Amino acid sequence: MDLAKAKTISVVGNSAAGKSTLSKELAKSLEIRIYSIDKIFWLPGWNTRDQTSFNALHEKWLGRKSWIIDGVGYWSEMEHRISKSDIVIFLDSPVELCKERAAIRINNERTSPNPDITEGCVYSEVEELQMQFIEKFHKELRPKLVKYLSSLNPEKVRVVDRFSELNIVN
């Protein structure tokens, strides 16, 4: 499917891969609302929302006519979201780039709260865990995600490491 015709888009990838930035570009270009998984997955203080209540919020998003949903969250809900997506974009950014971006995000957060995360979740409070999560995603979740995405219709999946590969038109 042509990205410009997509109405339901999932953007997945590692932490600090650029999912939120890409989603904002897509939303502007396609005039589709963004929903961030981090906003419903995380509760204040980096506590995770239970899967049942997460699923209820997630299903409300999926019931809309159009959406861009950015993030991973619980695996089974991500698979369901992907099955409902016209297009899935896997931002497969290198680990070192994700760590660099995470460090920048942590530094920026000292002067300006991050609007893409739940209020009460401060990255600088979990900096070491953030870097460990990036490594863990790359080593453990990325191979599972690559395998899963490769089982889907190739017309539906875009695996990119640079936004320019998507030819987003404003």
Give structural notes.
- By secondary structure, the protein is an alpha/beta fold.
- The chain has a single domain (3-162), classed as Rossmann fold, CATH 3.40.50.
- It contains 6 helices and 7 strands, in the order E-H-E-H-E-E-H-E-H-E-H-H-E.
- The protein has helices at residues 19-30, 37-41, 51-62, 75-84, 95-109, 127-150; strands spanning 8-13, 34-36, 42-43, 47-48, 67-70, 87-91, 157-160.
- The strands form 2 sheets. Strands 2-5-1-6-7 form a 5-stranded parallel β-sheet, sandwiched between helices. Strands 3-4 form a two-stranded antiparallel ribbon.
- The radius of gyration is 15 Å and the shape is globular.
- 28% of the residues are buried.
- The mean pLDDT is 93.
Fraction of helical residues? 40-55%
What is the name of the CATH superfamily? P-loop containing nucleotide triphosphate hydrolases
What's the helix-strand series?
EHEHEEHEHEHHE
Order of strands across the widest beta sheet? 2-5-1-6-7
Give a count of the beta strands, DSSP E runs of length 2 or more: 7
Strand content: 15-25%
**Sheet bearing the most strands, described?**
5 strands, parallel
Q: How many helix segments?
A: 6
What is the fold-level CATH name, i.e. the topology?
Rossmann fold
Cα distance spanning the termini:
19 Å
Q: What's the structural domain tally?
A: 1
In short:
With 170 residues, this protein is an alpha/beta fold. 46% of the residues lie in helices and 15% in strands. It is built from 6 helices and 7 strands; from the N terminus they run E-H-E-H-E-E-H-E-H-E-H-H-E.
